[in-house]
Amino acid sequence: MSAENIKTAKAQSNADALAGLKILDLSRVLAGPWCGQLLGDLGAEVIKVESLNSGDDTRAWGPPFLEGESAYFLGCNRNKRGITIDFSSADGKSLLAQLIPKFDVVLENFKTGTLEKWGFNQAWFETHAPMVVRCSITGYGSEGPQAGLPGYDFILQAESGLMSISGSENGEPSKYGVAIVDLATGMMAANAIQAALLARYRTGKGQLVEVSLFDTATALLANVGNSHLATGKDSGRYGNGHPTIVPYTTYRCSDGMIALAVGNDGQFAKLAAYLGNPEWANDERFKTNAARVNNRAVLDEHIKNKISRYSSNELINELRKLGIPIGNVNTVKQALASQQTQAKNMVLNVQHQKIGSFKTLGTPLRMHGTPSSIRYAPPLLGEHTDEILSEYLNLNTEDLSELKNKKVIA
């Protein structure tokens, strides 16, 4: 942090963990905004910069809308103040050049080379903003034959192999229900930014951090990718099942569907005994996890027939007493209304200038010494432009009026 920012952070040392950290968020859509929101939840001051007329693309992604504000945008832009600048103009680029050195982090997800085209290459940062950490989120990074192509979560799920391992066993490849590559990339970026900030304490210098959807999607293959590298075999689809753990899938009870995850042989023996077949635990086909994987179809059929006789609540209550992981397969509505969700404050009411009070998902970041908080609702387009430019660049009313007349800001 700059000396001024460190002073601010010390004054707020009992507040949020990242209090005093200043982030200029030039990103839009999901990966970058998700990163900015995570850092904002931890206390960073995040200034979201949007284009003059339409702003972040997700402002138009709906329905649903709340009083004209898209639920999508509202879900990934809290704890930010917002401004608009036209970067296509010389005056807009000048404002950006003045703003960047005032911040600790610049977060952007333009196509590779966009900032450089505007004159903000790494040499510029080293000369004019050497303490700033620049985080660049792109589709494919700056290397390889696809460098420079725009990145979309859906395409990366397809290209990375993630879709090939999702969906029913005999069905088509399927994408995840949310933009998992975007979300994970945002989390990777938040981690990398904080690592670069820690490194800055040692080196006294900022650095360029590159995070790409391609790299993240590939990394998300995790154990499945490593299994291929170990064997040379391609992975198939297992529906709700697990490639290397059995039983680990969904089953239908008499009144609904449950998810069962038996992680070791001890748990399997308890399950077998509860279902009335203790001999399964000594059956050579089932006594070890490796044997159960090799005899997946037979065992799943046995368990399916047994479980169909139970009600879901009965089965869940009894198996949890035995230490066997099990849960209902909820709809989103059921999940967000659950007692556990309420107890964890994972649905919150936020006060918005235009909407009034609206419900939003809570933050998963639990800091017991420096609690995370929601300080700002997602901003209206350009809501804080005058306020921010006055605060950071000391622009007066006359300066702001001139920029508005030139259509540099709104």
Describe this structure in words.
It is elongated and about 85 Å long. Residues 1-13 have low confidence and may be disordered. It folds into 2 domains: 3-220 and 351-405, 3-Layer(aba) Sandwich (Rossmann fold); 248-335, 2-Layer Sandwich (formyl-coa transferase, domain 3), CATH 3.30.1540.10. It has a 6-stranded parallel sheet, sandwiched between helices. Strands 9-10-11 form a 3-stranded antiparallel sheet, with helices on one face. A two-stranded antiparallel sheet has the order 3-4. Helix 2 packs across helix 8 (180-203). It has helices spanning 3-11, 31-41, 71-74, 90-99, 114-117, 122-128, 153-160, 180-203, 213-219, 222-231, 265-274, 289-294, 296-307, 312-321, 332-336, 339-343, 385-393, 397-405; strands spanning 22-25, 45-50, 65-66, 69-70, 80-84, 105-108, 133-138, 208-212, 248-252, 257-261, 326-328, 347-352, 356-361. By secondary structure, it is of the alpha/beta class. Helix content is 39%, strand content 14%. The two termini are 30 Å apart.
